[in-house]
Amino acid sequence: MTAQNTVPGAEQALPNGIEPADASEQMHVRLDKRGKLLARGEEPYPVTLERTHSLGEVRAKYPDLEPDTATGDVVGVVGRVVFVRNTGKLCFATLQEGDGTRLQAMLSLANVGDERLADWKSFVDLGDHVYIHGEVISSRRGELSVMADDWKMASKALRPLPTLHAELNEETRVRQRYVDLLMREEARQMVFTRAKITKSVRDTLDSHGYVEVETPMLNLIHGGAAARPFETHLNAFDQRMTLRIATELYLKRAVVGGIERVYEIGRVFRNEGVDSTHSPEFTTLECYEAYADQFTMAERMKEIILNAADVAGTRQIETPQGTIDLDGEWRWLAVYPGLSEAVGEEITPDTPLERLLEIGDRHGVKTDPLWTAEKAVVELFGDIVEPTLMNPTFVYDYPPSAQPLARPHRDDPRLIEAWDLIIGGMERGTAFSELIDPVIQRERLTEQSRLAAEGDDEAMQLDEDFLRALEYGAPPMGGIGLGIDRLVMLFTQAGIRETILFPLLKPEAN
């Protein structure tokens, strides 16, 4: 015979193998409460509630209510219980909603009755979502509150909230970001700050007539950057494919087709190391503008970053190494003169590899005898000079192998027209006067293919369709690549795992 008030799923204990492997004693207590609610015909996860106001709306409507005041305004609110005090005939709870807004709920014997007050004490735990119906008042201490005349369970939490300082360590915060967002205002603000910065980047480009597009994430041929791709397989074509390492080559195709100011903000994937500044999947902006060059794109980049600084709230960024002043000079520093000054001797495109390796050894740089001289210069600059550049610096006049998609320098064929923007000792973005000569581009990509065949897993592949597009005639253009994650890191001074909402992590140990 079945009890009339039972609901499907009312069993108090879960079958073996169904409950979580890490179920604690507290979880078993909460599971028991869930079962008891179901057994008496109360849904612990109702589909809808008679919510009339958010907690924020109640606070906005009554910002300065005098102590011990009743408004006569009856509302239905929902929030997560983050504090509870059950004392005799009057219980208190603090409710919190998604943006962190909090509001007090009060449950008295006189208003809800003996049975419902007892149910509150029996069934409600920290972390539960509850529905409170009642009058908006101010307590004797002046705390804005809802004096309940009824309550319902909105969602029974089976896991207890962690202790903020004891259990919510960095690993837990990153791996269980949903808990981090619940517990820390800083985590929630990071989400909103990143959204504002990304919107600002879009707004800046839109104001210059750029068009946002989407390009393929699955590529037959990887290119657009020097990076190792992730490989996958497309069953429909029985074809090996890669996840994109950059958006560049498709965006340039769009410019060839007449979309003369184009950009994309999206995820790219590089099968590389993980550290405080690198993630295997990350978000980039790439934009291309016809009839622009590296200097035009430097103006665009400066505007993008200053506008982002304004929405982030400051153009002076405090760091452990000192203050970064975005309102100061945005310096231009050529690679070879900059390295020469740092090591105390003249370095030119003609400096032999052997001498460069000696300089690297002297300065504690891990070198590789298989490097070319051009590669050695770029690596030495990155290790010796780049970390010292705190204020915005456009590092330019790179050797050709540094960027196979940049055009030869207009004055010195031993260099290319490209720059990296260094702020706070870290590369934040890059730009080129783009290579549009299909003959030189074919030579560069053929050399990349040769390097790939010799075992360089970061070398680009020869993309015949991209070359065919250039052969139809691409207008002169400038292009920018900007790491959105690193831009957020600049303004928040947080590591990349904090700026990405759900970063890629190693699997949890069993």
Automatic annotation (TrEMBL):
Q: What SUPFAM superfamilies does this protein map onto? A: Class II aaRS and biotin synthetases, Nucleic acid-binding proteins
Q: Which InterPro entries match?
A: Aa-tRNA-synt_II, aa-tRNA-synth_II, aa-tRNA-synth_II/BPL/LPL, Lys-tRNA-ligase_II, Lys-tRNA-ligase_II_N, Lys-tRNA-synth_II_C, NA-bd_OB-fold, NA-bd_OB_tRNA
- Name the Gene Ontology molecular function terms of this record: ATP binding; lysine-tRNA ligase activity; magnesium ion binding; tRNA binding
Of the GO CC terms on this record, one is: cytosol
| Reactions listed under catalytic activity | tRNA(Lys) + L-lysine + ATP = L-lysyl-tRNA(Lys) + AMP + diphosphate
User: What does the entry list as the binding residues for Mg(2+) 2?
Assistant: E427
NCBIfam families per the UniProt record, alphabetical: lysS_bact, PRK00484.1
> What is the official name of this protein in its record?
Lysine--tRNA ligase
Native source organism of the sequence? Sinomonas humi
